[in-house]
Structure formats: structure tokens, C-alpha cells
Amino acid sequence: MKKIAKKKFNIDNLKIDKQLFNEAYLPYLFDYSHRYNLYYGGRNSGKSYFIVDKLILLGIKEKRRMLFLIKQTNRVNETIWRMTLDALEKFQLYEYCEFNRSEHTIIFPNCTYIKMSGMDSSEKAKGFVDIDCVWFEECTDFTEEDIDAMDGTLRGKVKNKMLYFSMNPISMQNFTFKYFGFDTGIIPPDTFILKTTYLQNKWCDEKEKARLERLKERNPARYKIEALGDFATLDKLVFSYKTEKLDVNELIRNNPELITCIGMDFGFNDPTTCILSLYDEKTKTLYVCDEIYRKGLTNAEIARLVKEKCWHKNIIIADSANPKDIADLKKMGLTKIKPCKKGKNSIISGIRKMQEMEIIINETCENTKAEFDNYCWQKDKNTLQYIDIPIDTWNHCIDGIRYSIQNIRKKARILTVKL
Fold it and tell me: Which residues contact 392 (CB under 8 A, 6 or more apart)?
């Protein structure tokens, strides 16, 4: 069914009241300077509603062709369509627009066109013509191929073509973690990113606030995602750990019987890691103190970084799959480097040994903490039950630690470590 606009719209009559918006978003209401725009955070932060408001105000001021997307076609009505109608009512624009509810299209008085759709396949991008602005609601449900396909279809006549993204972060294994630079801390070019939580939404009611606060105790991982808007896994983690501020020299002074554990995992496209830990055999506590974590390292660069930390004076247990690298590093001054011992079930055996320990990770070891937050057990595809095999990702630092504890019988000899 189609509704034809009956009233003539005068943009001078459009009045924008600041009270209609959360304060955290106001500075960005009329900023359309970036091609890529990510609004992310916890639930009930108001980010999706703000994107709708912002794009409607853009569309009413200049003629645009917009596409609002959600992954599942059967959710269009209850999500992006409903939010857009609510926003038009809020700005008192509803009666000036034309609607086609079966096609989920809206035409503004100035001929701005908005289409709302599901996107079950990236191939669907080929069917959208002359679009100049796209919004991906719940973009964690999409794929990198979906976004790249739509990015390539922005062919409208306007100069400032834009893509908008809204999401609640999930696991770091989701493509968005790397796509938006969260893995490196470097924001990609021409990208705007804003994080908000329920604490910045004045329309989040007290009951919802109380529900989110209760998650702190009941389900900390879900609280990190739903309330704080952080990346965290909801799968079954292999390890638990604590974070503290650690000082290697102070630990050794307080307990000279600590056992030094240094392990190395080789990579190039993947990171090369070298992890320094100290093990207290009496309390069964493993202190993960420092890390080297770099991609694209040559053996000469690995040797230099290890020597800078004075770790070359200790036994280093390295991945035995790379005997040539171990031989090269010995020639470069890492004379005590040794290959790890591998055998049947060596991975699960090393994991079990680590699980028997209390693990405390130095607050400066960001990459190690990220891996512990995401290293999960696999699920059986048929039963959906967790099985005794870890997912082979988020394990470069963990593999280094697993190799290093093969040195568990050697006494610590680190008196000149540089951190």
C-alpha cells in the first residue's frame, strides 16, 4: 500500500531541538565528513536511533539515495523500518513523505529516496542502483565481503558518499575487530569511530539499567559486551586468569626460587611471539610478565628484540617446527634457544598443565590478555557440545607460554631484565 504526501514541506519550518538527542552524539549530528562511520558500544546506548536521525536530517536537507540494511530480511519490519518511521514522527516529517510498505521504501519531499532491505548474500549488492549512503545495522552479522560489495556500489552523484555501521561488539574473532583497526589500535583512513554505553543514554529506563548492572556478577563476559560495549567472547574459554601490575625484578627479589620460562612461537604474516613468565612452584602460580608480539620480523630482528630485553641469557624454548630459524638465532647470539618437545596430544597436555596453574598476566601484556580472552574450545557440529580440542586461533602468545613451561625444572636467573 502506498501513501502519497498531501502537504507541501518547507524546510525552514524544520526545527531541531537539542533535547531530542543524547549529549554524547550532538557534536556529530551534522558531521558528514567521513566515508566510513562506526557507532558501537553497549546495548541501549541509542546509537542506531542516532544514525537514523542523522541520516534523515541529511536526506531532508539534500537529495540523497540511501540504503538501510540488516542481514536478515525477515527482521526489516521490526528493526530498521520501525526505527525510521519513529524518527520521521519525532521530526514531524511523516505526513510529508511517500511510503511503499511492501517494498520498504520512503521518498522525502525533496525526492530523497530510502530503501530498507535484508542482505542475505553479498551478491544482492548488485541490485541496488545509484546509492550514495548505506547503513549496516548490527554489522557484526554481515561479512567483510558484504561491506566491500556495497562499498563498490556507491555510485551516486553526490561527492560525500558514506557508509554507516552500528554494532554491539562480540568476539574478537568477528571480522569487525580487525576491519575497524581494534587489533592494532590504528583507526583506518577516512574512518570515524564513536563508542557509547547505556550510561550515556538518557532514555534508558531504570529497570534496564538495573538488568545490565546485575550482569556484572552473573555473567561478566556478557556484561562486557552488552553493557560496556567491549569485545569479548561468549564461547567457553580454555583458561581463566587475573591481571595485575607486575615487576620482574621485584618478583625475583621477593622469591629467588622462581623458575624462568621463556617461549617463542614463530610467524611472519602471523605474529612472532616471545613470552617471559616466572613460575612459583610452591603456589603453582605462573606470572606472565612481558611479551614480544610483532608481525613481519626477520630472524635478525627477533634476535635484536630478545637481546634488548636481556632474555638471551636464559633458556628459550621455541617452536620445533622451525629448526632452521632456531639454528639462525643461535648464530645470532641466542645460544640457549632450544626446540620444544612435541608428540601425540602435546597441545592438550600443555593446556592441562597450564590449567593446573593460577595464571596472573601483567597489565602491560595486551596481546597475551587478548588471546586469553578469546582462546576457546571447539563445539561439535552435531551435538553443539564443547569438545577437548581448542580452536586454532588466538594462540600465538599462548603457544609461546605452552612451550616455555617445558623449562619448569630450571631455576630463574634473570637479574638484569629490561622491561
Answer: none
Helix orientation angle between 396-404 and 346-355, rounded to the nearest 10 degrees: 80
Comparing CA positions, the residue from 233, 230, 242, 226 lying closest to residue 369 is 242
Do 145 and 136 form a contact (C-beta atoms < 8 A)?
Answer: no
CATH match for 242-407 among 3.20.10.10, 3.90.45.10, 3.30.70.1530, 3.30.420.280: 3.30.420.280
The 10s digit of each residue's pLDDT in 205-246 is: 999 999 888 887 776 767 888 899 988 766 788 998 999 999
* Extents of the domains making up the chain: 2-226, 242-407
Give the residue among 39, 34, 41, 31 at the shortest CA–CA distance from 166: 39
pTM: 0.63
State the Cα–Cα distance between residues 56 and 343, nearest whole angstrom. 61
Q: What CATH homologous superfamily does 2-226 map to?
A: P-loop containing nucleotide triphosphate hydrolases (3.40.50.300)
Q: Cα separation of 191 and 415, whole Å?
A: 46
| Residue that has been written with the C-alpha cell 617461549 in this structure | 263
**Sheet bearing 285-294, strands edge to edge:** 242-244, 358-362, 285-294, 272-280, 259-265, 316-318, 337-339
Please give the Cα distance from 11 to 63 (Å, whole number).
13
pLDDT band at 314 (very low <50, low <70, confident <90, very high): very high
Cell of 228: 560496556
Examine the pLDDT at 412 and tell me if it is beyond 90.
no
What confidence score (pLDDT) does residue 214 get? 87
